[in-house]
Structure formats: structure tokens, C-alpha cells
Amino acid sequence: MNKIKFHSIYYRFYLFIILLTIGVVKFISNGKPISAHFLGYNFTISQDQLTYITLGLTLVIVVIFSIFGYKIYLCKDGIYLRKIDLLVGWDEIDSLSHVWINSFSVRNGLIRFYNRKTLVIYRKGYKAICVYNISLLSLFAAKVYCNRIKTNILLASLATMLNVGFGGWVLYQFFFAGLDSMKLWIFFTWMGLFFIKTLTLPLIMTGLENKIHGDYLFHDTAYRKNASKAIHL
Known about the structure:
four-stranded mixed beta sheet, alpha+beta
């Protein structure tokens, strides 16, 4: 195993929005064929056809963004950061963490709020490095090459399981459960999980890391971007 490459997972944010939109349309249609008018043509798509199209689209997007370009790779010598052409050796790294740092921006009147899944590289005697939109699997890969490295792998894994479980539940409800299964308690549970995912967990994760390593990690505000005291990649 020479190296393990990691690509940006930012595309998942937009992929989820696409899937959620299709799921809502499927949910509202409640099992009936969907008719659409596009470029002067009328289309009718059955529920099964829509499901197959969605699965195919998802597969194509995932494959494309998993092949072309990468942000970092891990090897026996350390972590290579492609953007700044820097190899950080394992002996230079004090610890690694995977945290969610909130990104907030307003563009053309649209508010965008996003949990950036961030690999934080704490270096001995140097400024920390935040590599945004990197999979949690990077921590597991780091353990393969350098088992002694300190990480927050337990908390990060629990947070990721909550995130995947919540997103999977929402998509299942819209794609497969049907309109009749939707209850008021489900909606309120989603609201609670969304609050935990977007605010509570990111604050806990960065707060714990700052308690251990010092005040390096900060979330975006409407007035300040990339507030963390680190190199941003």
C-alpha cells in the first residue's frame, strides 16, 4: 500500500440537495407517475423509472468526483498536501482530528450554511493546518500508517454515524416510505436532529479540540470567514 488519496467531499452537499429535491417530488406524487413539460416536450416518468434514474445519476456523480483530482494523500512518510505541495512527516505531527467547522456565506441574496468536514493537522512548533471537506476515513488511514498518532476518532465516528443516519432516514422517508407514513413526530424529530447536526455537534467538536490544543478552531460568522488560526486548504 504505497499511498491512499482523498478527494474533496464537497460535492456531497449538492448531491444531497439534488436527491432531496427528487425525493420530495416522489413523495408528493405518492406513487403516481410524474408528468413534466420540458423544451416543448411532455414526459411521463413512472416511480420505478425515477428511482433508477436517481440511482444512476448518484453513481455517476460519485464515481466522477472520486476519480478526478485529490486534495491529500497519506503514505508511510506522512501526509502530502497537494495545494501547497507540502509533505508533513508523521514525526512532525502532534495529533490529528476530524471536526465540523461551519461555513456561512451570503451570495446574491442566498444564505448558504454548511458543515465543513475538516481534517485538522496539529504540527509540532508550527501552525495547524485545516484541510476542508475531507472524509473521516482519513483518520483511519492515518492509523494504518502511524498507529501511535493521537486522534479524536471515536467522537468523529459517532458524529458521522449520526449525520449518515439522519440523511439516510430523510431520503428513505421521501423515496420509499410514502406519504401515508409521514407523522408529525417525525418532522419534529428531524428538526431536533438538524439542530444537533448543524450547531451542537460542531460546537462540541471544536470546543473539545480547543480545550486540548488551544484556541485554534473557530466557526464562520456573517462578518468573518475562515476564522480558525490555521492554514486553510
